[in-house]
Amino acid sequence: MVLAAPRLIDRGDLVAALDRAAARKVTVISAPAGSGKTSLLHAWADRPGQPGRLALVRVHRGQQDAQQFWLTLLDAIQHARATAGRADPPAATPDFNAPAMVDRVLSELADAQDGVTLVIDDLHELRSPDAPAQLTRLLTSLPPNARAILTTRHDTRLRLHQLRLAGELAEIRAADLRFTERETRQLLDASGIALSDSGVALLHERTEGWAAGLRLAALSLAGHPDPERFVAEFSGSDRTIAEYLLAEMLERQPPDVQDLLLRTSLLDRVNGELADLLTGRRGSERILLSLEDANAFVESLDPERTWFRYHHLFADLLRLEMRRTLPEEVPALHRRAAGWFSVQGQVAEAIRHTQAAGDWADAARLLADQSFSMTLDGQSQTMQALLRAFPPGEERPELALVRANADLLQGRLGQAAAQLALAETHAETAPPERQHRLRVAVASLQLSLARRRGDLADVVEQVRFLASPVTGQSDEDIALGSDLRAVALMNLGVAEAWTLGGRPDAERHLQEGAALAREIGRPYLEVACLAHLGFASLVLQPFATIRRRCRDAIALAEHYGWGMEPVIAPALIMLAGLMFWAGEFDEGERWLRRAEPALQTDTGPDLRLHAHMASGLLNAGRGHHREAFLEYSEAEQLRSQMLGSHGWASQMTGSMLAAQARAGLTAEARAVLAALDDQQASTGEIGNALAVICLAEDNPAAALAAAAEVVDGTAPVVGYVTVLEANLLAGLAHRELGDQRAANQAAERALALAEPDRLVLPFAVTGSAGLLAALPRHQTAHGALRADILDVLRGSSPAASERPALPPTEELSAGELKVLRYLPTNLSRPEIAGELSVSLNTVSTHVRSIYAKLQVRDRTSAVQRARELRLLAAGRTR
Q1: pTM above 0.70?
Q2: In CA terms, which of 225, 231, 802, 831 is 20 to 30 Å from 859?
């Protein structure tokens, strides 16, 4: 039979005091262990007429990772709001963006119409060094309908002085929580203990009203043969009282209960199955439930009452007693616990117990094997705490891999490289069954380091083996290596994307990485691969396909709550850039601004370079050439920090030089141009920049000569956009030279190149409005695109690209689509028939069918509807 603890009493005055305090913005309850903080919270939360909604979070013991705390807090708020159709709580990410998470929590609180009170219990257990600043920002920025109550054993590093000065901070301290003599009497009476008034006064004096001391004393007094003598002999400090009384309580429990409590005390939390394993007996869950029902310093952690924890003071005493009475069994108990947690996939707990057992070699191997998984699970700070737990004499070679991972996360790239060198040496001398896994781990981190340093090209070849599935390995090794391979495929794809010749491989590897991540249940890696897929698809896929891929990646990230995290920033920036190319400057700018919070973290030079290039496109498209030059210059500076050569270098340099010339800095642009090596100077992108410089210098003949080598295909180019721009520059030069016919031909070639992706930006950047306006409408086969471009250049927005398409049953045929492209022109039906080499009857039949399918009655309406549905782009037959 379990010995029952004293019943809790109604402390109405204290609950009322907390109720008054909770009317302020923030309430802090700060008092030592056993003072009754949690009991007060429960009594306040359970009182009748409790207004508003409560979001309760208990900080886990020794919580190292701030991300886990914030995710739990966000989930508690969403649960308190009981939002219909509430999405799953966001998952953890390796690159946690704390400011964005605080913003999201504040947004959730602001949207709660009935108000939410945050209750954070055991805040002192939050060990993350960054958490106080993050939490301070939250507490000082709470919306009007939100309140917060914090409990802690000691004052934390929260900076709440502004709230205190404003009268918005309430504090309840140890003195407020102490039992009065009257409450001491009530506690004893409720427990059926008869004690004289003098005995009650003495007990209150000796315990100083300390809640845990009184509860333990009442527990000891229950059934004691001489309560008065017990109280008279009772003395000592809080710790002495606790150890004395808890020891006495333990000794009065039945033997099977004592054994369970001692053997499971090494756990921070316990369930019936785990307790059965450590005791070697069944029925542990029944005992744990009985202990909780008896208020014997055991409490359940979940509504189903399957997981339990012991009161901290009680757990400390039990561990002391276990080391005193069962010292030889402690290592074996830790090994059993480690094995159980490992099977359950609770890696951090498994490593802790392996370390506690003194099995340092096994702990090092387990930590090395699981460091990637822990990082992906947002437990990087926990991983580093486990690393620090190894004693100085246990410098295992495998830990170099973990230290390299930790150094990378902290941005210590030089130290990471040194640790990787040690890890690589160890991998070569490791047992054969572990060599492949260690080599994959080292190579994957080398790729990560290369990305952080910007050394994206030279590292590709040395890690090609990462693209191949693991063969000849055990199922367990393959499972352990799946995370590594998914990370490697992602990094390899990103590296290859920076080399133009590697783009097909980059696209394939990122798609393989996303598929593998989806298969092994790693949504973060899936999102990361898909977020980079847009950039890898440039030159290979139509812009519409790339845009769809970006939107799919963003939608998946939002599903997991990562819409503002660094992981999705590549897709946000790429989508913004695609919109700029389509002339959708305002909408694209909104997507680019959305990526800004993600860039606040240490993302490496490649992502920041993308952002500056996109911003340069926006400014150039709007005619802000000086601002565009500054953005391109920043991108060029970042590119110079990236080791090795990059396939996009000529495009970046060419964009910067062109913007510099358009900003009136032609002499400076000439100086940069002269410093380029022959290989780069011979590219089409630099040729275009030279043409821009010549036009700015009023030398159209030289501009025409510079653009000619690009137009005729002599100069190597990154993609067709370079050729498109060269035709526009040639057209502008022809106009300056008075050759309007050649100018029209150049404009028509540019429109033909722009038609498949319906590009607008090159016409805006080059200032080609006059060139297009001078092109007679009856002389172009791209009248709709020409009209759209002129609308943008004159200040109108292009037709929305995201409007719904026609139903599948209303698709236009290929012949109808050909006729549709001529409807925006001034050509008559006989003239259209002549252009298409078909009969007039065929054209008339197609026109009638087009009107019916587009649900319009005339030619003007058909053109309007077709523009809305973007049916005038080549290859679109909806």
Answers
A1: yes
A2: 802
